[in-house]
Amino acid sequence: MTATFIPRRAAALFVFLAAFVLPASAQRPAAAPAGPLRLVVGFAPGGALDMLARAMAEQLRAGGEEQILIENKPGASSRISIDYVRTAAPNGRTVLLSSNAPLVIFPMTYRSLNYDLDRDFIAVAHLAEVPTVVSAGADRPYRSLQDYIAWARAHPSEANVGLTSLGGTLHFAVLGMGRESGLPLTPIPYKGGAPLVTDLVGGQVSLSTDALASQLELHRSGRLRILAVSGLTRNAALPDVPTLHEAGFKAFDHANAAYGAYVPAGTPPDVVRKLEAALIAAMRTPQVKEALGRAGLGATGLPGKDLHRLLDEERRFWRPIVQASGFRAED
Questions:
Q1: In angstroms, rounded to a whole number, what is the distance separating the alpha carbons of residues 199 and 271?
Q2: Does the pLDDT at position 33 exceed 80?
Q3: Exposed e or buried b per residue across 209-220, where buried means at least 16 C-beta atoms within 10 angstroms of its C-beta
Q4: 277 vs 223: CA distance, rounded Å
């Protein structure tokens, strides 16, 4: 075998040129993702947000994200999940999926919180619009909100309303409906949409309010009855169901919510941008739009700046209402 020797100057020139000619992948190994992508949901499996997480995860896998874990961490009105993500490594691999209320309204109602939206999180993407509904078990004797109010006047000790968290928009909407009807409606908190509808269908709670997506199929199957929808216009999935405004209650006019994605503060901007693009792309696929549309959710897929603007608008709208209510949460 004959050895080939390269003069020192030529060798140095070869190394210099290689830095420009060789592709980046040949110059240095690509950094591997720091573990699986964790989508953290603050409610039990089976609810609207869990449904969104699973539909989005399927599209992220199709887009090349190999390892995705959906972590359901119910409890404390979703604050357990929020704190879990707050203390996670800021590397873009742990993502909080949350409605706006725990991040916007809870700071106005809870005496002690260990998180702050502006300090602890980065808004990555607006994922979906979330219509809400008021429902009853299918075997209950009332078929409309007016029927329920009449029934509740005759059964005041049973005039309770199940919901998935205290201190959120639906809580204040229920309190507002109680004031409008002159009834002391008692909010009953649950750890998620699935246990809530279990008790609703079983008759343990007389009325409920939750995301339409959590209850639409049960309404279609006849196991529960949606009495009214929030907002000022009827929902396309339920054209025959009146709005609460039509039924004479204004407290739910602003009760529609939004789902967003967040990462811990300190996550590098380039990592946030990459994650934002992936989430937006997933939410805009026909498959996700169709799946969420069937469930009564409106897929959006908007950048983090739009989510941040919405959060600021929500704070301005709800702050005087919360302050006027005098409500303070302790748990």
A1: 42
A2: no
A3: bbbbbbbbebbe
A4: 39
Specify whether the CB–CB gap between 47 and 164 falls below 8 A.
Answer: yes
DSSP notation for 26-64: HHSPPPPPSS-EEEEESS-TTSHHHHHHHHHHHHHHHTT
Spatial separation of the C-alpha atoms in residues 253 and 250, rounded to whole Å: 5
Give the pLDDT confidence score for residue 26 in this predicted structure.
42
Contact 301, 136 (CB under 8 A): no
pLDDT at 145 over 90: yes
- Take residue 315 and report the two structure tokens written for it: 């704070």
Q: Is the pLDDT confidence value at 226 over 80? A: yes
pLDDT of res. 331: 63
258 phi, psi to nearest 5 deg: -140, 150
Using pLDDT thresholds of 50, 70 and 90, give the confidence band for residue 294. confident
Count, residues in the chain: 331
All structural domains of the chain: 37-130+256-325 (3.40.190.150), 132-229 (3.40.190.10)
Mean pLDDT across the chain = 88
Using CA atoms, how far apart are residues 66 and 265, in angstroms rounded to an integer? 25
**Spatial CB neighbours of 324, under 8 Å, sequence gap ≥ 6:** none
